[in-house]
Amino acid sequence: MAAFDKRAVFRDHPLFGVLSAEVIARLASYAHTKAVPAGSTIFAKGDAGNSLFAVCAGTVKVSNQSPDGKDAIFNLINAGEIFGEIALLDGQPRTADARALTDCELMVIERRDFIPLVKSEPDIALKLIEVLCGRLRRTSEQVEDVLFLDLAARLAKTLLSLTKRSQPAGRVKITQREIGQIIGTSRESTNKQLRIWEEYKWIRLERGGVVVLAADKLAEIAEEGADDPGL
Predict the structure, then answer these.
(1) How far apart are the C-alpha atoms of 115 and 111, rounded to whole Å?
(2) Residues 59-84, buried b or exposed e (16+ Cβ, 10 A)?
(3) pLDDT tens-digit profile of 134-180?
(4) 6-145, which class in CATH?
(5) How confident is the model at residue 230 (pLDDT cuts 50, 70, 90)?
(6) Common-topology check for domains 6-145 and 149-224
(7) What's the pTM?
(8) Distance between CA 95 and CA 217 in Å, rounded?
(9) Range from 7-16, 158-167, 192-201 carrying the lowest mean pLDDT
(10) What percent of the chain has pLDDT over 90?
(11) How far apart are CA 221 and CA 219, in angstroms?
(12) For domain 149-224, is the CATH number 1.10.10.10?
């Protein structure tokens, strides 16, 4: 991590890449890198929102837990994406938990350094608005999916989304329990549907992961929202 090229990360990042070389150099001087092992808590709901995180490598899980201990996963943040921007901008406590799903390399920017930059650089402010709008659209879509789609359609849509954003494409490192937490159902129900699709050879189940073999079949189910013929 000591030799990590912070400027290159900022130049290649969709949020920071719009900035001039001078501003990127300034931002890189503020940022510090952090290695986070898989399973470690990055921040918890209610913590002070005093920093923004950019994922350089790995995947971060953003989730919440109900009073009775049930988890709901709101988002998986992959390399090239940011998280922690809501509390950073409004100065309020964190609204969710963030945990390293895999070993992660993060870039951390403190609020005291970032807010003056946002005020002085309209381009980065506009990009932040785009990020926030994307978060809102994704949240609205998740609510609609739970209300209007059956389990098979929710599962197919989620697998396609996860594997599209993963590297290598088509394979995602995630447990069946975590998939269930994304689509709002039990691990047992998730496993039952995945086993059916594995029999069809549409997917392959691996230890701690899923490989999509027939994206077109899952896309049909996700689009139609119809019950899978195996159920």
Answers:
(1) 6
(2) bbbbbeeeeeeeeebbbbbbbebbbb
(3) 888 988 888 888 888 999 999 999 999 988 877 667 888 899 999 99
(4) mainly beta
(5) very low
(6) no
(7) 0.77
(8) 36
(9) 7-16
(10) 45
(11) 5
(12) yes
Structure tokens at 44: 């918890």
Which tokens go with 105? 């390399």
Average pLDDT over residues 17-41: 89
Domain boundaries, the chain: 6-145, 149-224
Which amino acid appears at position 71 of this protein? D
> What secondary structure does DSSP assign to 178-196, as a single string?
HHHHHHTS-HHHHHHHHHH
Cβ within 8 Å of residue 123, ≥6 positions away: 18, 19
Rounded to a whole number of angstroms, the distance between the first and last alpha carbons of the chain is 49
Say how many C-beta atoms besides its own lie within 10 A of residue 110's C-beta: 14
Closest CA to 205 of 219, 190, 220: 190
